Recover the amino acids of this structure.
């Protein structure tokens, strides 16, 4: 009976040996003498979100290359550290910890979905990292360690709703969204906002569908049916990702014209439109802070550089502009601070200004949000947007004014040192964020 | 009894010893307790890998030994994580809320505290009420019991329904897959009361241990995971070594024959199915505080299929095979997706592993199924020419055919 | 219109004022409103004349535009009305043309001096400018100097409504139709008279009918004569169109009111029973809002009052620290109220008594009882028909979904039935089909030709992939179904990732040919898009084809023989190997076709197949394997059931899918082998 014992012990050694070899391989990261400044890129390159996030990885890489051509930063080259969190939210947290502790990056550009941001937050706050988050989101958050370069609800959802109310005279709203936190919270804010504006509850129809939903016929039919009480119907869509393709195809098939039932989308940009034929969608709307069609010189140059690098058929979109602003602000802040130290950079970030691609200036506010103009565009046949409305810069509001429990909160890291400050009791509710 | 068992099966002892050695080694190298050669994030990865090994052992028991290809065991794993996650999240939030309300002019009423907790936890997903399923969330004891009870009960009910109507083979696999899909779709709903797509997050912050660094906490969890893995291995090895194991193997090899011998096949299957679900639940409860977040995507059907893949690659019907498979594939997966694997330039095209790892895994898996049906464990066995372990053990008629109650 | 002409004359100075045709059909109510609005616009115009003599040479429309330059540049629905009216009031016969051009977005503004122009060719650079007022060429300007005016759809609606009066009797039927559409979108009292005047001289029969119908619709809302309105309402009995309901429903809108006794003259819809029809709190709040009873003090107000009355750490005689329960706070407040420093909280009895003293009721906003009665009766007849048609529509949706599931699952069912293996890569064969459609469209730009080409090509490619899979993998795992399942899963993840590497992660466009655009509309409730009909037809064709192959051909005979008893079939001279290969190829090929079909109505991504695979399994399992009737029944059941559950819970599609799967799990308890179980030997494990 001795033979089997021996043979059984062999297989055990294998995983352990593997693990320990891997341990030392992962741990012993030799550092070069002429140290580059490391920038972490935390965007999914596989899985469901890769459709949107891969583009952002390419954008940051482009920006880094541009900066290196200009001679780097603080006389040191910038090095991109790309990881793939694979649309897997726990993996986002794990990769963040790796970036901050193993790779020791100075800043991270990353995340798309709110879930991924919420997964990353505790790690960032624990290890005092720095994240630039480039996507429009639901607000209700202001972390010391995150700069939100995308739109808060008051920079996208509220102005678009105003546009519906005032410009198009919409009286009945269908809020269609994918079932996750951004549409849920945005719709909650919008519902309250609409009620404040005198729209009765029964005139607000809310529907949530799963990610990648494709069978839209009955939902679109329900929306058309809403018009039966004689009020003008408008759709506010927070449908995310490729589910939009089926949704718009069904809209076109059922002959919903933008003049009868306008649809304004918060998650449909040039990238998403490239997946469908837009001839039947002309006139439907999207609200963003940037469109590729923006008529400025800096934008023309940006688009040209992008196309030259990535191919003629590639388009630019709003989160790309957010990274463009965020990256350049970070570069300027590091230059001002003379160091990449997170606390120093954060202080240098407050009040940092940079030119928008759409004209005007973005300013980093002490609540870690930007001032941004709100643009409303109509879909054209070419899959682009015709900008029909552009506001002055609107200051991003971390805590919405339209929900009673959030209206009393404000964020000011510069003077109050607090991201969740109750103005009624004049106390800081918490320094860390809700996850 | 235990003594003789261990002496008769020294392989188990070797495993336990190696596991202890490994844990000790990792502790010494860790940042929290040792010389800091390996990073905290890697300690967490190791701890999580141990949990995956544990659930792989459960999978091996149910598939490799009992022949039930369950494509739903990650559902139990996830449920375990959710149960412990509820307590972690509730208690952590309660701490914050109580501190905050202490500043108010009137001392808070219990309703106010509860309301504020609800607003903090569910405000993110557009609600504020605490759903009824959170009623025990303030009690660690009850939630710990639920870690075992909820997956166990689900497995019991599901297994009873499925085995009773003699659903077997591929049908059963599809049905278990449907179960996990239904559960994940249910949890994806915001109204499920478990924060929908967002899931439960911030789980790495242990209430009452806020000031203790993650460097230390990660090692604690490594220990706990190693302990659970050791205990699970011991239990599984003990089960399959005895008569129970023989009957179960018999069911795998020829169910009808075992039934004709007078065994209550359904009862045996149900016991194995439920027991492995409980093990999976415990593994999940240890895994997710290390991962930091749990959400419904974790229990999507694909996760359970990967679990089967680990066990198949490692080698079915041998417990160490499951451990090898889970550890190897999940660690390799981490390595390849981290961008550290060197790219292979082919001149006309550069293979970037981030893009090609899944292709490699997929085809590699097909090759293993075709050419090494016993997995890596089987390959190793064959190398050392041990014919007994290299082939699935034929069903031996039980020596004493006693019908269990 | 006097003021308008006067101002215009004043403004134009030397320019010859054109006579103003006064719109005679304008409703009296809006006339004064518009006049007022116009006055508001024209006053600044008058002032502008005094300050901006440069405009003296410009034509009348240009002048109006220049005087409201900012509002024209950033036109808004709220401000553009008076401008449009002023443009029409200039009386220029080019005004309608200009307004049309404006709403078509072919009016440009020259950056240098802010003047507006029409252009000859939008794409030319430099642009040839055309004067708005005269239509004469007005020189050229480089494209960069010209800004396009982009009125939004709200503004375009206003313009369209203003143009109605010029369009209703236009010689061009398209314009008349456009005018009618403008009225349909945004009916206005002023349109009624214009419409009535334009009915008799309408030569086109279809347009005339449309005008008459529209006239009745407008009469319902804007008619002055009660009898005419009632007649118009009754004429719509049973008409389920959305626009009819949209006209009738507002007539029945109500307002909740209260009084001490029910007023006799009010058009009461119903009286409300406090406690059942209206919550006591809400009723009380109404009374409190009207100042009839003291306001309730809610918990927040109570706590605020307590905080305000804290003195030396005590309030209402108790220490603040003890106020950590609701009851304690209640007591403290009562103590405060007893001292008179805060208003007392009205008790539940007080509130109920106050509410009981009043009658709560809903009144129609429409004063005429005859009209509301007619509207209610007509709507009732309409609603019951809408409900019936709603079920029909639901049935069509279910049928459509079923045909999609059928297409996706039938290939799986065949291979499962014949070989007893589940092909997890089946979804990826669907994906291969969809991507084939996309690639073909890159080379064949004509959508009809490309689809006709893509269908067989997708079949062939998926067929080849299926045969390759069978030869290379499945054949070697013949008697190990569980291993096959896992091996094909490996293929599935590899293929999915390969597709990502080749086509990228973005969704790819697969566009249906033009003749599949739009929907077959039976009425406003029942309609189904042509793409779905095409998919249904495709499913039907494949059902018949498969039935034919399996029951009427040599191959089918062999397939059935192998399905029922492979060894026996082999001994009869049938090569199971060949049959397996062909069936696997056939099943995969159909998946490829399904891919093209699904890609036409949904998104083409690498995950397209994966999102259908579990549903396909369900279909096969529910239907029973190896039987196309089973798959048909399974797909039909799952498709219609899913729609039914969605109908019960329209706000949450996810829930529908969950309940669906739970139902299937339970269903399998009762029919473990599916609806159509195979009998005989093949039914064994």
């Amino acid at each position: 009976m001795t033979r089997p014992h021996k043979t059984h012990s062999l297989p055990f050694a294998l995983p352990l040996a593997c693990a320990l070899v891997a341990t030392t391989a992962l741990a012993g990261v030799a550092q070069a003498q002429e140290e580059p400044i490391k920038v972490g890129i935390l965007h999914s390159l596989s899985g469901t979100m890769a459709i949107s996030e891969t583009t952002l990885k390419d954008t940051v890489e482009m920006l880094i290359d541009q900066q290196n051509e200009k001679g780097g930063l603080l006389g040191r080259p910038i090095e991109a550290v790309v990881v793939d969190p694979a649309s897997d939210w726990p993996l986002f947290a794990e990769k963040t910890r790796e970036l901050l502790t193993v790779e020791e990056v100075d800043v991270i550009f990353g995340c798309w979905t709110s879930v991924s941001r919420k997964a990353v937050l505790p790690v960032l706050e624990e290890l005092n990292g720095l994240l630039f988050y480039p996507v429009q989101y639901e607000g209700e958050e202001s972390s010391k360690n995150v700069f939100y370069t995308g739109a808060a609800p008051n920079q996208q959802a509220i102005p678009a709703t105003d546009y519906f109310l005032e410009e198009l005279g919409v009286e009945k709203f269908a809020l269609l969204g994918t079932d996750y936190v951004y549409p849920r919270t945005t719709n909650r804010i919008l519902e309250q906002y609409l009620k404040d504006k005198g729209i009765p509850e029964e005139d607000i129809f809310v529907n949530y569908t799963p990610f990648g939903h494709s069978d839209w016929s009955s939902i679109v039919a329900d929306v058309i049916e809403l018009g039966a009480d004689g009020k003008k119907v408008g759709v506010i869509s927070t449908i995310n990702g490729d589910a939009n393709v089926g949704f718009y195809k069904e809209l076109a098939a059922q002959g919903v014209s933008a003049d009868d039932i306008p649809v304004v989308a918060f998650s449909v940009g040039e990238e998403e439109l490239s997946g469908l034929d837009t001839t039947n969608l002309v006139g439907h709307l999207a609200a963003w802070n940037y469109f590729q069609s923006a008529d400025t010189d800096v934008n023309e140059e940006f688009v040209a550089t992008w196309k030259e690098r990535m191919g003629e058929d590639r388009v630019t979109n709003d989160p790309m502009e957010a990274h463009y602003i965020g990256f350049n602000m970070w570069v300027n802040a590091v230059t001002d601070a003379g160091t990449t130290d997170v606390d120093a950079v954060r202080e240098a970030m407050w009040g940092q200004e940079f030119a928008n691609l759409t004209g005007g200036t973005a300013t980093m506010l002490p609540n870690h949000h930007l001032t941004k103009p709100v643009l409303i565009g109509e879909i054209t046949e070419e899959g682009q947007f015709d900008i029909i409305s552009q506001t002055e810069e609107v200051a991003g509001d971390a805590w919405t004014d339209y929900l009673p429990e959030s209206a009393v909160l404000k964020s000011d890291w510069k003077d109050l040192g607090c991201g969740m400050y109750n103005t009624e009791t004049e106390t800081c509710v918490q320094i860390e964020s809700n996850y | 009894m235990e003594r003789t068992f261990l002496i008769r099966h020294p392989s188990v002892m070797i495993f336990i010893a190696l596991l202890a050695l490994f844990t000790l080694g990792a502790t010494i190298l860790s940042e929290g307790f040792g010389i800091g050669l390996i990073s905290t994030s890697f300690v967490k990865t190791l701890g999580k890998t141990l949990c995956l090994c544990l659930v792989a052992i459960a999978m091996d028991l149910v598939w490799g030994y009992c022949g039930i290809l369950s494509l739903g065991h990650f559902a139990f794993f996830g449920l375990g994580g959710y149960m412990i996650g509820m307590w972690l999240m509730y208690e952590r939030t309660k701490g914050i809320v109580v501190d905050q309300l202490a500043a108010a002019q009137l001392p808070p009423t219990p309703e106010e505290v509860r309301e504020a907790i609800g607003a903090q936890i569910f405000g993110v997903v557009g609600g504020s009420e605490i759903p009824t399923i959170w009623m025990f969330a303030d009690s660690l004891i009850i939630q710990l019991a639920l870690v075992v009870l909820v997956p166990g009960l689900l497995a019991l009910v599901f297994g009873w329904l499925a085995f009773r109507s003699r659903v077997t083979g591929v049908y059963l696999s599809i049905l278990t897959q449907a179960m996990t899909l239904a559960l994940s779709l249910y949890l994806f709903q915001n109204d499920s009361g478990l924060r929908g797509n967002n899931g439960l997050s911030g789980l790495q912050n242990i209430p009452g241990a806020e000031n203790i660094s993650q460097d230390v906490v990660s090692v604690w969890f490594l220990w706990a995971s190693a302990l659970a893995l050791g205990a699970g291995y011991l239990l599984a090895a003990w089960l399959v070594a005895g008569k129970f194991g023989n009957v179960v193997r018999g069911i795998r090899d020829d169910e009808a024959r075992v039934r004709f011998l007078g065994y209550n096949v359904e009862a045996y299957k149900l016991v194995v199915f439920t027991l492995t679900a409980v093990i999976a639940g415990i593994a999940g409860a240890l895994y997710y505080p290390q991962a930091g977040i749990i959400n419904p995507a974790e229990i999507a059907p694909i996760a359970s299929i990967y679990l089967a893949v680990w066990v198949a690659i490692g080698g079915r019907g041998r417990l160490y095979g499951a451990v090898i498979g889970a550890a190897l594939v999940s660690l390799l997966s981490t390595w390849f997706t981290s961008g550290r694997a060197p790219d292979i330039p082919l001149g006309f095209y550069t293979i970037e592993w981030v893009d090609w790892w899944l292709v490699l895994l997929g085809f590699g898996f097909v090759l293993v199924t075709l050419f090494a049906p016993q997995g890596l464990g089987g390959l190793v066995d064959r190398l050392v020419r041990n014919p007994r372990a290299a082939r699935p053990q034929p069903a031996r008629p039980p020596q004493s055919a006693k019908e269990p109650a | 219109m006097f003021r308008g002409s006067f101002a215009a004359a004043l403004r134009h100075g030397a320019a010859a004022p054109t006579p103003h045709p006064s719109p005679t059909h304008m409703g009296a109510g809006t006339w004064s409103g518009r006049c007022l609005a116009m006055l508001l616009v024209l006053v600044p115009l008058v002032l502008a004349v005094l300050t901006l003599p440069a405009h003296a040479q410009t034509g009348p429309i240009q002048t109006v535009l220049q005087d409201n330059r900012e509002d024209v540049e950033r036109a808004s629905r709220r401000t553009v009305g008076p401008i449009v009216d002023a443009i029409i009031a200039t009386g220029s016969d080019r005004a309608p043309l200009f307004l049309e051009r404006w709403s078509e977005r072919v009016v440009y503004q020259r950056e240098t001096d802010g003047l507006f122009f029409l252009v000859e060719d939008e794409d030319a650079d430099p642009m040839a400018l055309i004067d708005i007022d005269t239509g004469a060429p007005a020189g050229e300007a480089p494209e960069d100097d010209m800004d396009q005016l982009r009125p939004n759809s709200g503004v375009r609606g206003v313009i369209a409504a203003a143009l109605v009066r010029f369009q209703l009797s236009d010689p061009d039927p398209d314009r008349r139709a456009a005018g009618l559409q403008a009225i349909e979108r945004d009916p206005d009292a002023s349109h009624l008279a214009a419409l009535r005047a334009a009915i008799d001289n309408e030569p086109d029969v279809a347009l005339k009918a449309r005008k008459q119908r529209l006239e009745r619709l407008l009469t319902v809302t804007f008619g002055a004569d009660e009898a005419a309105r009632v007649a118009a309402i009754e004429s719509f009995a049973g008409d389920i169109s959305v626009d009819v309901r949209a006209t009738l429903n507002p007539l029945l809108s109500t307002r909740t009111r209260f009084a001490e006794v029910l007023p006799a003259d009010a058009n009461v819809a119903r009286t409300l029973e406090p406690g059942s029809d209206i919550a006591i709190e809400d009723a009380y709040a109404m009374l409190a809002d009207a100042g009839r009873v003291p306001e309730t003090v809610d918990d927040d107000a109570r706590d605020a009052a307590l905080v305000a009355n804290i003195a030396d750490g005590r309030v209402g005689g108790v220490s603040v620290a003890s106020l950590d329960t609701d009851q304690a706070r209640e007591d403290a407040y009562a103590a405060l109220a007893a001292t008179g420093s805060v208003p007392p909280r009205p008790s539940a009895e007080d509130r109920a008594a106050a509410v009981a003293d009043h009658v709560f009721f809903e009144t129609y906003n429409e004063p005429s009882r005859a009209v509301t009665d007619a509207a209610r009766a007509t709507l009732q007849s309409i609603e019951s028909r809408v409900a019936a048609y709603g079920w029909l529509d639901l049935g069509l949706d279910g049928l459509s979904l079923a045909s999609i599931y059928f297409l996706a699952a039938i290939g799986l069912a065949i291979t499962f039935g014949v070989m007893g293996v589940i092909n997890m890569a089946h979804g990826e064969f669907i994906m291969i089909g969809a991507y084939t459609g996309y690639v073909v469209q890159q080379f064949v730009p004509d959508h009809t030709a490309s689809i006709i080409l893509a269908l067989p090509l997708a079949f062939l490619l998926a067929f080849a992939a299926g045969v390759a899979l069978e030869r290379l993998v499945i054949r070697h795992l013949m008697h190990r179904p569980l291993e096959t399942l896992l091996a094909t899963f490996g293929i599935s993840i590899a293929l999915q990732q390969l597709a990502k590497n080749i086509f990228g992660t973005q969704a790819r466009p697969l566009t249906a040919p033009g003749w599949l655009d739009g929907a077959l509309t039976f009425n406003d409730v029942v309609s189904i898009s042509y793409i779905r009909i095409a998919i249904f037809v495709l499913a039907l064709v494949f059902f018949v084809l498969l039935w034919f192959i399996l029951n009427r051909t040599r191959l089918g005979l062999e397939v059935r023989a192998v399905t029922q008893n492979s060894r026996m079939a082999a001994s009869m001279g049938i090569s199971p190997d060949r049959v397996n290969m062909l069936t696997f190829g056939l099943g995969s090929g159909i998946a490829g076709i399904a891919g093209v079909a699904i890609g036409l109505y949904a998104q083409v991504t690498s995950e397209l197949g994966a999102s259908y695979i579990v549903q396909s399994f369900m279909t096969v399992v529910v239907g029973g394997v190896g039987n196309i009737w089973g798959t048909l029944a399974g797909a039909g059941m799952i498709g219609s059931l899913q729609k039914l559950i969605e109908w019960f819970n329209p706000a949450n599609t996810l829930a529908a899918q969950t309940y669906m799967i739970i139902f299937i799990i339970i269903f399998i308890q009762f029919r473990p082998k599916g609806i159509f179980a195979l009998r005989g030997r093949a039914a064994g494990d």
